[in-house]
Amino acid sequence: MELLPRSPAEFGSARYWDRFFRQRGQRPFEWYGAFPELCPVLHKYVRPRDKVLVVGCGNSELSEQMYDVGMCEDIVNIDVSDAVIRQMQERSGSKRPKMSYLLMDMLHMDFPDAHFQVVLDKGTLDALLTDEEEATLAKVDQMFAEVSRVLQVGGRYLCVSLAQAHVLKKAVEYFSQEGWVVRVHQVAGSGDKQQFVLPVFVYVMTKFRKIPGSALQILEICPEEQDQPMRVESAERLVAAVKDRQHYALLCSQLSKAPCREQVSLDLCDKESGKPRYTLNVVDSPSVKPSRDNRFAIFIIPQGRETEWLFGTEEGRRQLAGSAGFGRLVTVALHREQHYEGMAGIQAELSGKVMELAPPGLPARQQVPFLSVGGDIGVRAVQYRGTSPLSGEYVVEDVKGDGTSYFRRLIFLSNRNVVQSEARLLAPTPLPGQKKRRKDKKKPGPAEPPAAIDKSYLCCEHHKAMVAGLCLLGGPDSLPGALLAVLVVGLGGGSLPLFIHDYFSQAHVAVVEIDPSMLEVATQWFGFSQGDRMQVHISDGLDYVAKLAAEAPAQYDAIMFDVDSKDLTLGMSCPPPAFVEKPFLQKVKTILKPEGVFVLNLVCRDARLKESVLATLRDVFPLLYTRRIEGEVNEILLCQPSPEGRRDPTELGARARALEGALREPGRPWDSSYVLADMLQAVSIL
Predict the structure, then answer these.
(1) pLDDT level of residue 244 (50, 70, 90 thresholds)
(2) Contacts of 45-50 spanning 24+ positions with Cβ under 8 A
(3) What span, in angstroms and rounded, lies between the C-alpha atoms of 34 and 42?
(4) Fewer C-beta neighbours within 10 Å, C or N terminus of the chain?
(5) In whole angstroms, what is the distance from residue 544 CA to residue 561 CA?
(6) What is the CATH number of domain 459-685?
(7) How far apart are CA 437 and CA 448, in angstroms?
(8) H-type alpha helices, 273-400
């Protein structure tokens, strides 16, 4: 402890370093980055005939090792500590005659201009730039000016650093503004021998003549796992890229030492595009008794199924890890913008990287299994990409579900882990680039999804609960053929209004949708169509309801809100807050018939906000039922204007069974998994 400075400023003091090296004696002191790890990078930029200057050499063995392996012999080492210079002259004088050690301050060097091809700095900049005080920054500017002066054009300043944000930012900004090319290499770690948890970096600044008036900056980063540098557009982006790698190193260190109490999520990006290629979630199961063969496994989520509860939620992944029987399970989600060469290709690509996330105590060279559903990576075919001024970028994609079913989905890329709309598909169609099947080929191939929409199937559990809420209207036996006026706010793919239109033969459905692009998507890709009993109004739902309340009150038997919020910072993603404010809800009540039902899809993760919404609803609607959707955040609220129609869950279940029986006409398709009574027997009355 007595070797440490009293304050960071002492790192720049010659007196401190004299005392440090006298007390330490002959033992070499390496800040970080041993020669074997630095050697691959140094070999790229130091040539045998180069004249090399090492600033702040201390008693590091780096110069000696470079000399001994034949990398370079014409090396001049300088330091402000007289003690260490005499020590190093004694240690290397006779063994390495072409290498010299000089007592010199790097802020005021005696060398002529353009004297060296390489200036090498191992930790010296880090030691000098301990803070961002004006005096410290002035010293750093002087150091950089001297480095620039003694380097030839085309020469390289190699700086070995831990890349603290303020250090990297200062170096990058200074030299890029001078017209130099700046490249940052991440040094490959040395496993258990690595002294520092944080990775070591080498800044490579190559001197070019500054072109007057030019603002061109060439900034690059070269991660440890690849040789080809990646161009970045600004100093801020370069600092951020380094910071990401530092956070990853800290994460791997923590995961290697102890089980993680909370699930850890991270993205692995494509080397060329920089876009996310894999999303990894690390899940530890403390209840699993560890043995040699169940410590660690990788689970590849089939394409298109990453939004399912089992794979897309923390609780689901926790259940998956427990049922798989592994102490640590890493789930891997595949991104729609990327191409994958099957399970074997993914395994080859990920094997090295996922081992960095291995649990503590995993034996060396332990075989780690790669798991999946059915042994394949699933099927995902993007059918359409579009951009809406209101919804942003979106895709329509076909995916293979569990078993032989295929589904079409609408995904907003601003919230890519949420399925906005979904429909089951029927008739087969080839994927893009595939040939059409011959008529005599009866069985579809494994990667051949169908295209026709199955309008009898409601994919979303919350839509099933919303339809079940119609049991609160009139007599269930006569309801399918009753004259109903239904208002649906929020079209999406159109499956909810389509189902009501098709199964309630006399229902007149009005749909309000603010985004005209969604009407085009629903019509072109989800089998939606308008007619005498189905009309879409392109309007803001708030304005539409307000206009109706002023002109034509008490006209709807049922009003359904299934509207997403575009503001992802809120704790409520459905509906937007304005739709559950009391003045607006009173307008909703105005256009609802006295015996009608208002059905609201609520998605709220903020407990306080949710309680506030429920309180407001109770103020406006005296009778309020709630139906939570198992495994999802969705909660369906069934609201009625009068408390006189109150029914207990048992009665609601009976009404639901009667309605389902009436809806299941002979010859009409019905999804056997859709049991209306199940939807209503689980309601609670608030």
Answers:
(1) confident
(2) 45/118, 45/156, 45/158, 45/204, 46/71, 46/72, 46/118, 46/120, 46/156, 46/158, 47/72, 47/117, 48/72, 48/73, 49/74, 50/74, 50/116, 50/117, 50/118
(3) 12
(4) N
(5) 13
(6) 3.40.50.150
(7) 9
(8) 309-312, 314-324, 342-354
Residue 46: what pLDDT? 96
Q: DSSP 3-state assignment of 105?
A: coil
Placement of tokens 């609670």 in the chain = 684
Residue 639 Cα to chain centre, angstroms: 37
Quote the CA–CA distance of 550 and 561 in Å, as a whole number: 20
Tell me the C-alpha distance between 561 and 577, whole Å. 12
Specify whether the CB–CB gap between 407 and 452 falls below 8 A.
Answer: no
- Which residue has tokens 């559903």? 373
Which amino acid belongs to residue 386? G
Classify residue 642 by its DSSP letter. Answer: -
| Structure token digits, residue 669 | 């398709």
Cα–Cα distance measured from residue 478 to residue 663, given in angstroms and rounded to the nearest whole number: 10
From residue 293, give the alpha-carbon distance in Å to each of 75, 281, 290, 319, 369.
53, 21, 8, 19, 9
Q: How far apart are CA 378 and CA 401, in angstroms?
A: 8
Nearest alpha-carbon partner for 8 in 185, 126, 172, 117 = 126
User: How far apart are the C-alpha atoms of 21 and 23, rounded to whole Å?
Assistant: 5
Q: Could you please report the per-residue DSSP string of 592-635? A: EEEEEEEEEEEEE--HHHHHHHHHHHHHH-SEEEEEEPTTSSEE
**Residue 193, pLDDT score:** 41
**SS3 per-residue string spanning 516-553:** HHHHHHHHHHCCCCCECCEEEEECCHHHHHHHHHHHCC
Measured in whole angstroms, how far is the alpha carbon of residue 251 from the centre of its chain? 16
Percent of the chain with pLDDT over 70: 85
Task: Evaluate whether 8-250 and 459-685 have a shared fold.
Answer: yes
As a CATH number, domain 8-250 is 3.40.50.150
| Token representation of residue 144 | 């950089």
d(CA 88, CA 102): 10
> And the tokens for 146?
């001297």
In the prediction, which pLDDT does 523 show?
94
The length of the chain, given as a count of residues: 686
Q: What residues have CB less than 8 Å from 493, skipping those under 6 apart?
A: 408, 410, 420, 421, 422, 423, 521, 522, 525, 526, 528
Contacts for 212-217: CB closer than 8 Å, 24+ residues apart? 214/179, 216/179, 217/176, 217/177, 217/182
| Average pLDDT of every residue of the chain | 84
State the CB neighbour count (10 A cutoff) for residue 329. Answer: 24
Whether 306 contacts 333, CB under 8 Å: yes
Radius of gyration over every alpha carbon of the chain, rounded to an integer in angstroms: 34
The whole-number pLDDT of residue 226 equals: 65
207 DSSP assignment: -
Residue 89 has pLDDT above 80, yes or no: yes
What's the count of helices (H) and strands (E) in the chain, helices before strands?
19, 27
**Looking at per-residue confidence, does 207 or 322 come out higher?**
207
Q: Is 330 within 8 Å of 300 (Cβ atoms)? A: no
**CA distances to 415, 515, 537, 627, 638 from 466, in Å:** 23, 22, 21, 9, 8
Sign of CA dihedral 336, 341, 345, 349: negative
Whole-angstrom Cα distance, residue 556 to residue 589?
10
- Domain residues of the chain, as ranges? 8-250, 258-360, 459-685
Could you give the C-alpha distances from 118 to 48, 50, 106, 349, in angstroms and in order? 11, 7, 14, 37
